[in-house]
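Most newcomers find our protein records easier to grasp once they have seen one. Sequence and backbone structure share a record, each on its own labelled line. To make this concrete, we reproduce a full record directly below:
***
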Amino acid sequence: MARPARLPVSCPGMRRLLLSTTLVWFGCADVVAVPDGGAALDEGLPPVVDARPPPPPDDPDGAPDEPDATPDAAPDHGPCTTPSDEVCNGRDDDCDGASDEGAVCCRENPELCNGVDDDCDGMADEGIECCAGVPEVCNGADDDCDGMADEGLDCCAGGDEVCDGQDNDCDGAADEGLVCCDGGDEVCDDADNDCDGAIDEGDVCCAEEVCSGLDDDCDGAIDEGGLCGRFVQSNCRIFWAWADERLGPANTSEVWGPCPGIDRFGNGDLGCTATRFDGNFARLSLQGDVNDDDQFGFALLCRPGEAPDLAEWVESRCALFVGYADENRAPNGGPRFAGCPDALETRAGDLRCTSTGFDGRFRPLYTQGDVDDNDDLSFAWICREDPARPGLANSVQRQVEVFAGWADERRGPPDGSPVWSTCPAMHSQQGGEVRCVGTQGDGQFHKLNLIGDVNGDDQAGIALRSRP
């Protein structure tokens, strides 16, 4: 019987199977079938190598395993060969046959405020502000130790606290600093009495109107009815002083001769007068020839009256400013005169000024050359804004008017007269032998022209009045 053709020795993956009496070779390009008697077919042939890996003992048929219904808890990363510290990685790092034993994987957990060592470092709740059983408050911490911070609360850090039972400003307290009464009536006390989130809403704070810069009676008007002007007229007074031969104070002074101890004085070289809380004109008679050795001075003083704080405010926040000009150089109107009101007084040049200075003291104003009809005086009533009492400066400035009068040849009205020429019916009269001007409540300087040669037959007048 002829032998079958040889298979190449190098044929990889060659297999042989004995099926009944037939030996089948496969795995290469040629397949040879051998009839019965194949027991001697291997004779003289090289050994056949099976390239397939042997099947595992529990899988004798060599077929692939079916997937396990329940996979292993940790993947198989191969045998442990070099022992090391066990870490949380699913392997047997220390070669003891177990993976991730102990608490190594616990260390990856954050610590919670629950009385348990969550991160397995031997300590419970370390680094956390815990107080088990304490109610949760709006502070960014887990106060009740349930693992959550500020749960169930409406928090807004930095918000204003309102009367609603919540910690609106996130300081750990609810409704602190507020007087709350759910369903109560709102009253004027800077608190949210009816717990609606608004303070003093409605007309609860409406009261009798006073000079305050506010709408006290809630009628939409502020200090209406000339309240501030009437208070100033009834409680404040302006002094007008004069001195010949520079006999008045050389600098800022609380007194001018015997004034303000008395409000009428004249001895030939020194004199003063003052308003008397009635809105009428106080008259001052000059002496001798008025020239560059003469001085004028002014002061504003207020008595406490029924509102001491308001009287103090007027004296320290409002002032009469007086400008002097030679050669008729005074501007008619305008908010400034020779450096005033930024300065309280200036003494050089053809334009000079002085004021009551917001402190109840006299500041001398020096005249220049021979004072006559080419000289002018200018008057302004100015109140300074007060951030603590907004609106009050506007009310007092607007409702107060200072009138100044001048008369030649002693033709002025008697002391205490309610009128001087056409004032106060008019705000200015610049012609004739009797003249006057008013400050008009606008914070501007208003000019008064002097008459002829100013000397001992001239008279000055001053009035402090309320404006409507």
Summary: The first helix runs from residue 227 to 235. The longest strand covers residues 236-243. The chain is about 5% helix and 20% strand.
